[in-house]
Design goal:
Diaminopimelate Epimerase, Chain A, domain 1; 2 domains; seven-stranded parallel β-sheet; six-stranded mixed β-sheet; 13 helices; about 35% helix; globular; binds guanosine-5'-monophosphate; binds manganese (II) ion
Length: about 325
């Protein structure tokens, strides 16, 4: 993987470009994708954003979110765009497997693949150019660095600002996590100079849910959460029937894992959701417990030190058993 800076002088030649990111994109994936889109179209490129799967409705306010192609739902169109692409930007993921059903299309594509990501241990042989910085707050911040680094600060408009703000704000837990460096605040200051309404972005992302999501949260916290005080650990297990009963859609479970993490003394919070085709887990930690390692070792996953996730194909009760065994094995770090 060659340094991304080597592409700066090729940015002025118009190209067919695809931008993609990890499956079930969060605000950082979608925000960095659309932020980059609004930058590249100003340079005259023909740009298509492809999401490997569907996404949460609370991301649809982002400018031109309606133009994003869902690979799962419109495969022929997406494959066509991938075939025509000369460059493919891969954002907010470290391994091609994070693009789920798109993995083989990406792996076999002859386009130049460019990584911009902040997860540890990137699969560098899969990318031609790129930048991987696990200490960065968000991929949105890295897209900002790319725009500024390539000498295009003057291209930062209100569309770019809204998208990148959404990414950096959510990935820093509203500017709370350790990753919130002075550069993050300097970037936000620059974005705010465009005059976008930052309160509106918070409203779109956090105050736009349906009643059923809170009924579901209530039931989950009352009936589906177990606390293991001797391990300073909390576990939420969601059977598929709950998702059906409360009409839970993509994105509705985001943030749920933070509730048990805010219980006094809890160092590790986990949620395991039976999505039907797979068991999706999310892990959050405080202090010296590394959930990236934990997710890698036991749950085919990864992420960051304090926030990670994984996927399993085994049945729910087996994944739960696996979690409890893993928790016991880590007692000395969790105590
Ligand atoms: P979340 O729990 O919100 O889905 O994800 C938390 C963090 O872990 C994110 O940085 C995300 O990219 C990463 N992550 C979530 N699921 C997986 C997974 O299945 N594999 C890997 N490698 N990372 C994941
Ligand atoms: Mn991210």
């Amino acid at each position: 993987m060659k340094p991304i800076e080597e592409l700066y002088n090729q940015l002025t030649e118009p190209k067919n470009i695809v931008i993609t990111f990890h499956q079930k994109p969060d605000a950082d994936a979608m925000g960095s994708g659309l932020g980059l889109y609004h930058f590249l179209i100003q340079l005259g490129h023909n740009v298509t954003v492809i999401s490997p799967t569907n996404w949460a409705a609370f991301l649809n306010w982002m400018p031109d979110a309606k133009k994003v192609i869902d690979f799962d739902a419109a495969r022929a169109n997406a494959v066509n765009k991938l075939t025509e692409a000369e460059w493919i930007f891969c954002l907010d993921f470290n391994t091609l497997s994070r693009t789920k059903n798109m993995e083989s299309e990406l792996a076999s594509s002859s386009a130049i693949k460019i990584l911009i990501d902040h997860h540890k241990e990137p699969q560098i042989e899969a990318f031609d150019y790129g930048i991987s910085k696990p200490d960065k707050s968000s991929t949105a911040e890295m897209v900002y660095d790319f725009i500024v680094g390539s000498g295009n600060d003057n291209k930062i408009n209100i569309e770019i600002a809204q998208c990148l703000y959404a990414g950096v704000m959510t990935d820093t837990g509203s500017f709370k996590f350790d990753s919130t460096t002075p550069s993050v605040h300097l970037m936000v200051a620059r974005l705010m100079q465009t005059g976008f309404d930052h309160s509106k972005v918070h409203e779109h992302l956090f105050e736009n849910f349906l009643e059923n999501r809170y009924r579901f949260f209530g039931n989950t916290l009352l009936n589906r959460m177990e606390i293991f005080y001797e391990y300073n650990t909390a576990l939420i297990v969601i059977p598929q029937q709950d998702l059906i009963k409360y009409e839970i859609k993509t994105g509705d479970t985001e943030g749920l894992v933070n509730f048990p993490l805010s219980i006094r003394g809890i160092k590790l919070a986990a949620i395991i959701i039976d999505r039907g085709d797979e068991r999706k887990s999310s892990f959050r930690s405080k202090g010296d417990f590394d959930v990236n390692l934990f997710a890698r070792k036991y749950f085919n996953g990864g992420g960051h030190f304090h926030a990670a996730g994984g996927r399993n194909i085994e049945p729910l009760d087996e994944v739960v058993r696996k979690f409890k065994t893993a928790m016991r094995e880590n007692k000395s770090i969790l105590e």
